[in-house]
Specification:
- By secondary structure, this protein is α/β, with parallel strands linked by helices.
- It has one domain: NAD(P)-binding Rossmann-like Domain (Rossmann fold, 3-Layer(aba) Sandwich).
- It is 38% helix and 17% strand.
- Helix 3 runs parallel beside helix 4.
């Protein structure tokens, strides 16, 4: 999974499904702001709006420009299966099914779809662990070094 995370960090064009046009306190909105500050070109995907924070929004993944090969899914899990299928149809190379608090966006079906269709994927991790700073970055280092966070290793 580390190789796929490294590719996410390396590319500068990233789509984020789940950026909301209604609130700046949503996970997808916060991720979009942070990645934009870091110099990434973000392509928000939301079927309900044409623009988010002054940035053109795409109604679905298949409408994204061809140079976008990475998709972060920051939606509830009920949208994930469709999004990974759209990513494959759009010839994307990788998807990240985010997990911050709660279940996150991953589903067993989406993970299997990615495996069967040779679509690189990340799941079970918050993108802020790779792209963020401070505590998020430290949590990522602990996970890489020790194979998990203390709460995960107790399971």
């Amino acid at each position: 999974m580390q190789k796929v995370i490294d590719e996410f960090i390396k590319v500068k064009h990233i789509a984020i499904a789940g950026v909301s046009g209604k609130s700046n306190v949503k996970f997808g909105n916060n991720l979009m702001k942070e990645l934009t500050k870091q110099g990434y070109i973000i392509y928000p995907v939301n079927p309900n709006t044409d623009e988010i924070n002054g940035v053109k929004c795409y109604r679905n993944v298949k409408l994204l420009p061809a140079e976008v090969k990475s998709l972060i899914i920051a939606t509830k899990s009920d949208a994930t299966n469709l999004l990974v299928k759209e990513a494959k149809e759009a010839k994307m190379e990788r998807v990240w099914m985010q997990r911050s608090t709660g279940k996150g966006s991953e589903t067993p079906e989406a993970i299997n779809f990615c495996k069967e269709n040779k679509l690189d994927y990340v799941y079970g991790l918050c993108p802020f662990m790779a792209f963020g700073k401070g505590a998020h970055k430290f949590h990522f280092w602990i996970r890489k070094t020790f194979g998990g966070l203390p709460a995960e290793m107790k399971k």
